Amino acid sequence: MSINKFTVSSFLKAKNNDEKISMLTAYDYSMAKILDESGVDSLLVGDSLGMVVLGYENTLQVTIDDMIHHCKAVSRGAKRAMIIGDMPFLSYHVSIEDSVRNAGRLIQEGNAHAVKLEGGKNVIDKVKAIVKAQIPVIGHVGLTPQSVNMFGGFKVQGKGEEQAKEIIEDALLLQEAGVFAIVLEAIPEKLSKIITEKLDIPTIGIGAGKHCDGQVLVTQDMLGMFSDFTPKFVKKYANLSSIIKEATNGYIDEMKSGKFPGKEHGFTIKEEVLEKLY
Ligand code: KIV
């Protein structure tokens, strides 16, 4: 049976047909498989990997090799969803050549279908060169976590006139440079509405309200598995932390009391073989 894969054209078609695009993060094979089988349109191998999976304080220590490693795993798990590989800090900041090579590695080695990078006018030359190399790009404006040290923390962006105008201008420049979608993170709902209406390409919101053409969440946040901090914009659709803890306690108790493993979990050996072992 052929699978109706979600592609760049599906993103654009969804915007034109007023259909919302679903995106979730994924970092490994088994979760990617579950999310893909659940019908999510797109899987973002985000550099949130650094915080959610690798336990770093922010995303700045994530490398292109980390991203390729996890993109490969996700790509083995997903059959229908479009896989977006996030470009980590410093992988598109040094030179145009370096940016194209790193984006290309996410596609060639990581098996991603597209890449995402943060920023606006400061990265336009890199975006144009990556698109010219036939690699689909998603932009990301508003709260761009790789700029955490410049922002002085993970703070809502675009509340003041000047900053809001800059975000609108960045989104328009990214569209002109050839990105096929833009992530809007942690900006006021009414600002994201203006941007979504101004653009021909879809916007994917995270903490940007309901008017975006699609939404993305960090899967571990959405499933209640990551408790270091929970941004205001997260909705938990499950509390897997407590389910996992309950199951783990059950395992520890049964294993310590000798209830597990039971006979049904073991393998037998013939008596005549056994006799020769003593
Ligand atoms: O790294 C990430 O997971 C992201 C999303 C939160 C948009 O960039």
From TrEMBL:
Pathway(s) of this molecule: Cofactor biosynthesis; (R)-pantothenate biosynthesis; (R)-pantoate from 3-methyl-2-oxobutanoate: step 1/2
Sites where the protein binds Mg(2+): 47, 86, 118
The entry's keywords: Cytoplasm, Magnesium, Metal-binding, Methyltransferase, Pantothenate biosynthesis, Transferase
Example GO biological process: methylation
Similarity comment: family membership: Belongs to the PanB family.
Entries under HAMAP family matching the protein: PanB (MF_00156)
The protein, known as: 3-methyl-2-oxobutanoate hydroxymethyltransferase
Protein source organism: Anaeromicrobium sediminis
